[in-house]
Design brief:
The chain has 18 helices and 27 strands. By secondary structure, it is α/β, with parallel strands linked by helices. The protein has three domains: 223 residues, Rossmann fold (3-Layer(aba) Sandwich), CATH 3.40.50; 85 residues, Roll (Luciferase, domain 3), CATH 2.30.38; 129 residues, GMP Synthetase, Chain A, domain 3. The strands form six sheets. Strands 7-6-5-3-4-8-9-19 form an eight-stranded mixed sheet, sandwiched between helices. A hairpin with a 6-residue loop joins strand 24 and strand 25. The longest helix has 21 residues.
């Protein structure tokens, strides 16, 4: 009886069965692109694998990739695996300090450097003497180049395999609550999770639908790595497109015309706000309600977003307002929310045609078990479950129940039909001076549903009442020096405050909404590389002003 296939087995099958089929499309600037077939991809990966082996790096060594998404990221990962090593991907927006920490903590033997926007600031984080190889689209540097290496190296022959229990990758969490943790995954578990994801895709992609996907969320993050990269290695059919830059994103999306598209709530919200800059929400709602015109408007809006061909759209990584899901579904986009984490290779919970309700994150995916602790914490056992935290057996002991369920740190409710609803993070729940606990996530979702708001944070530890901070929609921010616009924002947020307070328990009511005029970003440290808010940093940035805001008792305040 043969052993179950692993990712490399699938890849070798595609190399043999469809060597001339285009696998990846890479923009190279000026509107030009390069296509890579399965045969070309594996030829380059085999040559790089042979080069890695020639360096006499020990089996199982960690090899790092610091790059934005590109075709050579995929090739490098395959080469690393074929050479008997493990991948460590670093978020391309990380600081030099974090780059240095990950490279040192993982004991990386080699680093691939690729597409980057802030290389000059990151380069000081590289340890002296670390062997580096530059991808074709890397910023200027003095490293040996990918193209030169593959040109002078003969390809590795045969089908070099890996054991199911071999470490495939270390995935470093985005560090929303401190130092990133290295999550260890092996080939067996990431393959089983990837197969499960492909099973979910088959619910929507029939034999006549070509799979086209735009890879733009960081491949260093588990969502993109599992639901796009590794599942694509299992599936083998379809094409992966890459984005050139933020400025060309619309053109990149329209080039791909994806049939499958995943994003995070912050970007789904930005897409919506982009629509609202062209058509006010009330006018759009009216047009959508008209029998004939509504269908034309739906198609036009989705085509403008580059999403008119999408048959499956997903949102993950953070909670998304139920109202936002409803809005996309009114447009005819099948937007489904899922729930997972780095620790289970993004394979735990998802919506499907039979089980989906805005506000819920779906049901347990095949092979996954979900239950709640006595305290209401969501506990998960998944086929994609991590082996453990790298060099942190203390965290392993804290993170699992005696019978092997992972403690997610999320509070939730399980409905009779299996649907899971999240109600916030266990550790994010805070207590006001009145001794009452407030869960920020459900309140933030209500606030984030407002078209003026890009994102928000609810806090108030030890205060008499909670407060909310909001970042306004990008289109509004340049207009705030106009008195009429500022007055309108003030008025609508005051109304929003009243609506939110009417919908929550008395002890959860907000005293005020604070408008921050400095947007939160990855660069200023207020967002993680996956665009989650860093609560402690945001709270610390306004700590000195809180007594003044609470004292003047204005419903809307400016920061």
């Amino acid at each position: 009886m043969s052993s179950p296939k692993l990712l490399l087995d699938y890849v070798y099958e595609h190399e043999a069965a469809r060597p001339d089929a285009v696998y990846m499309t890479q923009p190279i600037g000026g509107g030009a692109v390069l296509d890579y077939t399965w045969g070309q991809t594996l030829d380059q990966a085999r040559r790089m694998a042979a080069h890695i082996k020639s360096l006499n790096i020990e089996p199982g060594a960690r090899i790092a990739i610091l790059s934005k998404n590109c075709a050579h990221f995929i090739m490098a990962e395959l080469a690393i695996w074929m050479a008997g090593c493990s991948t460590v991907a670093i978020f391309p927006t990380e600081t030099a300090q974090t780059v240095a920490y990950v490279l040192e903590h993982s004991e990386a033997s080699l680093l691939f450097v690729g597409k980057l926007d802030t290389w000059e600031q990151q380069q000081p984080g590289l340890p002296a003497g670390l062997h580096c190889i530059a991808f074709p689209l890397a910023p200027r540097n003095g490293f040996d180049t990918w193209d030169k290496v593959v040109a002078r190296t003969e390809p590795l022959k045969g089908k070099p395999g890996r054991a199911p229990t071999d470490t495939s990758m270390l995935m470093y969490t985005s560090g929303s609550t401190g130092q990133p943790k290295g999550v260890t995954h092996n080939f067996e578990r990431i393959t089983r999770a990837s197969e499960g994801i492909v099973g979910e895709l088959h619910r929507y992609l029939d034999q006549t639908t070509e799979l086209r996907v735009l890879s733009y969320l960081p491949l260093a993050h588990v969502f993109e790595r599992s639901w796009v990269s590794c599942s694509g290695m299992v599936l083998g059919k379809g094409r992966m497109y890459f984005a050139e830059s933020l400025d060309t994103f619309v053109q990149d999306l329209n080039r791909a015309r994806p049939t499958y598209f995943i994003s995070v709530p912050r970007l789904w919200l930005k897409f919506q706000q982009g629509v609202f800059t062209k058509m006010p929400p009330k006018k759009l709602d009216f047009l959508l309600s008209l029998p004939l015109i509504g269908g034309i408007v739906r198609r036009k809006v989705l085509k403008g977003l580059g999403l008119d061909q999408v048959v499956m759209a997903g949102s993950g990584s953070a909670p998304i307002p139920a109202e936002l899901i409803d809005w996309y579904r009114r447009l005819g986009l099948n937007l489904l929310e899922g729930y997972a984490m780095t620790e289970d290779f993004a394979y735990s919970c998802g919506s499907n045609p039979e089980h989906n309700a805005p506000g819920c994150v779906g049901v347990a995916l095949p092979g996954v078990q979900i239950r709640l602790s006595e305290e209401g914490e969501v506990l998960v056992k998944s086929p994609g479950q991590m082996v453990g935290y790298y060099k942190r057996p203390d965290l392993d002991a804290q993170s699992f129940t005696p019978d092997g369920f992972f403690r997610t740190g999320d509070k939730g409710e399980l409905h009779a039909n299996g649907l899971l609803k999240l109600s916030g993070r266990v550790k994010e729940i805070f207590k006001t001076s009145k001794g009452k606990y407030v869960a920020p996530a459900p309140i933030e979702n209500r606030i984030n549903a407002h078209p003026m708001v890009e994102t928000s944070m609810v806090s108030g530890v030890g205060q008499s009442a909670a407060y909310a901070m909001v970042v306004l929609a990008e289109s509004l921010r340049p207009q705030l020096n106009e008195a009429a616009v500022r007055d309108r924002v003030q008025s609508e947020l005051a109304e929003l405050l009243q609506q939110v307070n009417q919908s929550v328990a008395e002890y959860e009511r907000l005293q005020m909404i604070v408008v921050t005029q400095q947007p939160w970003s990855i660069e200023n440290g207020m967002l993680t590389p996956t665009m989650k808010i860093r609560r402690s940093q945001i709270e610390a940035s306004v700590e000195a002003q809180l007594p003044i805001w609470y004292a003047n008792q204005a419903r809307v305040q400016w920061h």
